[in-house]
Amino acid sequence: MEEPWDFEFLSRIADSCVSFLSEFVDDWLANDMRVSIFKILLSWLIFSLVAIHFAWKVYGNTVNDMYYRQGTGQNGGTPDTAPHLSGWESTAGGTLKTHRE
């Protein structure tokens, strides 16, 4: 059996949501400065998200292809080492370095 506080808890949550929404609607319909600023910022946020969504739909594959390296190797198409040098050689001296140097 369900305990009676479950229904009371749910009804309190529902009442608080309804009261919040009613206060929000009252504030939304009011013509004061903070509501106007909130409307401007909310519309800017929505516009930006929609613009980002459409830009990603149009240019997403192009951007992804620019940064995705195809092929095999260490980082996609990058070879593991340069063909004329071994892994630890430098172009200046050509000597191998040890951990003591």
From TrEMBL:
InterPro entries: TCTA. GO terms for biological process: osteoclast fusion. Residues 70-101 are annotated as: Disordered. The keyword Amino-acid biosynthesis does not apply. The chain crosses the membrane at residues 37-59. Coiled coil: none annotated. It is found in: Membrane. The keyword Lipid metabolism does not apply. Its main location: membrane. One of its GO terms (cellular component) is membrane. Keywords: Membrane, Transmembrane, Transmembrane helix. PANTHER family: T-CELL LEUKEMIA TRANSLOCATION-ALTERED GENE PROTEIN. Belongs to the TCTA family. This is T-cell leukemia translocation-altered gene protein homolog. The lineage of its organism: Eukaryota, Metazoa, Chordata, Craniata, Vertebrata.
